[in-house]
Design a protein that fits this description.
Chains A, B: This is HTH lysR-type domain-containing protein. Chains A, B: Residues 1-56 form the HTH lysR-type domain. Chains A, B: Keywords: DNA-binding, Transcription, Transcription regulation. The structure is a homodimer of 294-residue chains. With 294 residues, the first copy, chain A, is an alpha/beta fold. Chain A has three domains: 3-73, Winged helix-like DNA-binding domain superfamily/Winged helix DNA-binding domain (Arc Repressor Mutant, subunit A, Orthogonal Bundle); 77-163 and 257-278, Periplasmic binding protein-like II (D-Maltodextrin-Binding Protein, domain 2); 167-253, D-Maltodextrin-Binding Protein, domain 2 (3-Layer(aba) Sandwich), CATH 3.40.190. Chain A is 37% helix and 22% strand. Chain A has a five-stranded mixed beta sheet. Chain A has a four-stranded mixed beta sheet with strand order 8-12-7-11. In chain A, α1 packs across α2 (18-25). Chain A binds a DNA duplex (30 and 30 nucleotides) through residues 17-19, 27-38, 50-51, 53.
Chain lengths: 294, 294
DNA sequence: TCCTTCGATAAGAGATACTGATGCGCTGTG
DNA sequence: CACAGCGCATCAGTATCTCTTATCGAAGGA
């Protein structure tokens, strides 16, 4: 179960080929074959069926663990390295698109210690932060008010909420519901939605509404929020977005908010200071640092 | 960063000695010295100060990651092995003491497929389950109604809530508050409490009350809930316990409940079935399986 | 000061983990 | 049905790694 064996295993499954994995990893096919054999011998279990190459049920389980395990590995390494490098002079910030609310953007530009800002998809932020690509991570998501976001576990970076905001349903002006004062998500399950992961993924809608439905009328794969707003306004489907991004009808039920959280290494004082500074005064002190506890 | 190096590192820090760690792990002192040297060379960072042996700041960070990382390692291995072993004939269940509510205990005894039940401290359940010591884990804890418990991350075992119950403050009959209909936790911050991790740890009280205080009058280190009840009734300090365990005054604020969750491997159908069966009818369907999501 | 303790280092034996060559079963093709 | 091509397994050989034993040297206590 050494990390390099896991990495090889993952690659083999992904490429569905020992030889292709070998090439990708810079080994010979023989080495890959032996590595898999070692892994299987170590666990005493067949992990792969050959020809065609597919994971066995046990292999599927291992596959599911391997990703997070390797991610955590990288996170640990990055964290140690950050601690050893000492406080960063200038900070690199990585954020999901919607995490850069106007106020946060202002906070970032006002702060001379920020060197670079990079945005990536919401699911990638924690991962990229963990890999050491940035000193501060900003992720957005949907949660009950003052509840922490559910993020892939990546060790114990300090984590604080920096902003919470109302959500609105964006719909075209002529839409029958456009004049409402508020909307309940469950009532919109039968409507046609925009699939746009940069806003709120459709599966997440089902999850927070607790019902199925939410058929997709149109899919948008980019990262540009503006485009999503325009598509929604043009009637390609509904979109759920934070109020500061677009005009729309407030979401009144369930009681969820758009929340932005900052991730930073416990050893980076500058990042901690910046995170604290980004924390918006209007939002009453959101819950503090997180840690695994019973 | 191979697992065995991490294990050695952790042991060295823990024992504060290379030689002692070597003995504990069955290596020579020389081997341990070399392993630490390899780890430090790999990361390019000094992890330990020698004489006396103490972690550097970078070492502290690594130490914090190493535990969860190794735990996850074991969890992955155990999960793969469980998957390979096929559905268990008879199940081993591991539970924290308070997780065995009367109804759950009944469910377990009614179920002939259960072979063994073992209880361990609340913090150990997830860990022991992850290590493959049991097919089903039952953990209790305090949470907002229908919120999942916060458990150490251990991969993606399926997780369902099986019971939720009101909490009561146990106090002696002659206590001035004993006749109240309900109590707010924050109002009890100045009272003297029983430190008994088998009930609710004092730190957790501070956490959910959101205030300090909760001074400890008396400490109990065992695992026996009955003793805690007796101690509380005898006036050694207050205790917060699920209503089914002891008579007491219901906790009315904050709105938290005693919750029991079942952990089981995704590949163990028997365990899943048992978990579903333990699920108590009175509690309206608590939120389902968990997984890391954005 | 001397002795003990404890970690670092050197040297060598054994285990491990690669490469390159070859074997062998499957699959597709004529 | 035979055969070629593909792809994983296996074998042999070598380089590397990871231990052990032996020894050194610095720090701390008597």
């Amino acid at each position: 179960m050494e990390p390099h064996l896991l990495r090889t295993f993952v690659t083999v499954v992904h490429r569905r080929s020992f030889s292709a994995a070998a090439e990708e990893l810079g080994y010979t096919q023989s080495a890959v074959s032996q590595q898999i054999a070692v892994l299987e011998a170590d666990l005493g279990v067949a992990l792969l069926r050959r020809r065609p190459v597919r994971p066995t049920p046990a292999g599927e389980r291992l596959l599911e663990h391997a990703g997070p395990l390797l991610l955590r590995h990288r996170a640990a390494r990055a964290d140690v390295l950050r601690a050893a490098a000492g406080p960063a002079e200038r900070l690199t910030v990585i954020a999901s698109p919607l995490a850069c609310t106007p106020a946060i953007a202002r906070g970032l530009t006002a702060n001379r210690s920020v060197a670079t800002l990079r945005t990536v998809g919401r699911e990638r932020v924690a991962e990229r932060f963990a890999s050491g690509a940035a000193d501060l991570g900003l992720v957005d998501g949907i949660a009950a008010p003052s509840d922490p976001l559910r993020l892939p576990d990546v060790g114990t970076p300090a984590r604080i909420g920096v902003a919470e905001e109302e959500l609105v349903v964006v719909l075209p002006d002529r839409h029958p519901l456009a004049r409402r004062r508020g909307l309940a998500l469950a009532d919109l399950a039968d409507a046609l939605w925009l699939r746009a992961d940069v806003a709120v993924p459709v599966e997440r809608l089902r999850e927070i509404a607790g019902v199925g439905g939410f058929r997709v009328a149109f899919g948008y794969d980019g990262e540009d929020v503006h485009t999503v707003v325009n598509l929604a306004a043009a009637g390609h489907g509904l979109a759920l977005l934070p109020a500061s991004v677009a005009a729309g009808v407030p979401l009144t039920a369930p009681r969820v908010v758009h929340r932005v959280e900052a991730l930073y290494g416990p050893s980076s004082d500058r990042a901690a200071a910046l995170a604290a500074q980004l924390r918006q005064p209007p939002s009453s002190t959101p819950p503090g640092t997180s840690a695994a506890g019973s």
